[in-house]
Design brief:
alpha+beta; binds zinc ion
């Protein structure tokens, strides 16, 4: 038996175990949605499935224990039609994807590696769009999701949900679900009649708003009005951000300003203006210059790094909450907003918590899994908790060497 078959057989067995007792909740109007599955590693995606009864979905999962389970963010009159136009689009949820793959985190220099498949050039950190040596786009990446990455993903998700969706857009927390993506981020689903029929252009505007795109700082000589601290939306967000920034210690470093009595005076005036002002008030000269410098910084801090392709796609397939991610064996678990801060995927999204198994780990940095620290490992046979072994095998960082007692 080849090693690969062994690995795949092991993963299949574990997934089967998971889906045997799976009791996931149906998404809203599930019978209007398209479902899609990837059953095996080399198999193609099975699309255009639709189900009338939720029990049929459970039965399908039990029978096939797929590696990946998706459903459409869209609702269709004919969800099982294989022609996209024949499906008759009726609307779609508003979906956001916050994925550390697309967000810079400094820790990637430590734990991520990329290799050009054509010339073998390799490097650490975020992969380049094309190989810097031969321009090939066939760049392979080996990535990990560490505590630093998790913190960034949580911060972005909290900003999105609290500052934008609830505060600015006035969605009720009941219309918003946060779901661990199963790998390196979170999906945010908004199920609301208000968003259902929004077209791509409208969704793009939402993305631009959330990402702070187009809040361009103008360089003309015109007078600029500073918003009051309690203004709604971006104006208030900018005012508060500038206020926090100017009250922080390191103005010289942050704004690249040489401190002098004149600058000092203007800084004080801006802070005082923000504290006292109940309305938009004018900024001129040096005050205007400082304001712009500060605003540029504030936008970067307060905007939210969502993947625009996901939100603007009105026929997107999205991983179904509660199912397993075939690339990690972790659960795409729903997370309540109040639990997001303490959410740890290597505890709360672990599907297999009992038993150990021996595996050959090809490569793994130090990982804290189920509250215990493991590794780093390099080409060695070790006995690991079964959930961590599944994670490493699914992500192609380990191979099965023997069947342990996973029922222990
Ligand atoms: Zn290359
Ligand atoms: Zn990291």
């Amino acid at each position: 038996m080849g090693k690969e078959l062994n690995n795949e057989g092991f993963v299949k067995k574990m997934f089967k175990k998971y889906y045997a007792e799976w009791e996931g909740e149906p998404p809203k109007d599930f019978n209007r949605r398209e479902f899609a599955f990837v059953i095996s590693r080399k198999g193609e995606m099975i699309r255009h499935k639709a189900f009338e009864e939720w029990g049929e979905v459970r039965e399908f999962l039990r029978k096939n224990s797929p590696l990946h389970v998706y459903y459409s963010s869209a609702y269709y009159a004919q969800p099982s039609a294989s022609d996209m136009d024949a499906k008759e689009w009726m609307g779609a949820d508003l979906i956001f994807d916050i994925d550390v793959d697309h967000i810079y985190t400094p820790c990637k220099e430590r734990h991520d590696r990329w290799t050009c498949l054509d010339c073998n050039t390799s490097g650490r950190g975020m992969p380049p769009e094309a190989c810097p040596k031969c321009s090939s786009k066939r760049v392979e990446v080996k990535t990990w999701f560490c505590e630093g990455c998790l913190e960034v993903a949580k911060e972005e998700t909290t900003k999105l949900v609290e500052d934008f969706l609830i505060q600015d857009f006035n969605f009720s927390p009941r219309e918003i679900s946060i779901v661990f993506s199963g790998r390196r981020g979170f999906h945010v689903h908004v199920e609301s009649d208000v968003v259902k029929e929004l077209d791509q252009r409208a969704r793009r505007e939402i993305v631009d708003y959330v990402r702070g795109t187009g809040l361009v700082v103008q360089n003309g000589k015109r007078r600029v009005l500073a918003p009051p601290l309690n203004a709604g939306g971006w104006p208030g967000r900018l005012a508060k951000g500038v206020y926090e920034l100017l009250n922080a210690g390191d103005i010289e470093g942050l704004l690249n300003l040489r401190r002098g009595s004149k600058v000092e005076e203007v800084l004080k005036a801006i802070v005082k203006g923000l504290e006292e002002s109940r309305d938009y008030w004018p900024l001129e000269g040096l005050a205007r210059k400082i304001w712009f410098k500060a605003v540029e910084k504030v936008i970067v801090r307060k905007r939210c790094e969502v993947d625009e392709r996901v939100t603007t796609d009105i026929k997107r397939l999205i991983r179904m909450p509660g199912t397993l991610h075939g690339g990690t064996g972790l659960i795409a678990a729903k997370v309540h907003l109040k639990d997001l801060e303490s959410f740890d995927p290597y505890v709360h999204a672990v599907a297999f918590v009992k038993g150990e198994i021996k595996v050959k780990v090809l490569n793994m940095p130090e990982i804290t899994f189920l509250n215990q620290t493991w590794g780093p490992y390099n080409d060695e046979v070790v006995e690991l908790p079964i959930g961590l072994a599944v994670y490493l095998i699914c992500s192609e960082n380990a191979i099965v060497v023997g069947e342990g007692d996973e029922n222990a």
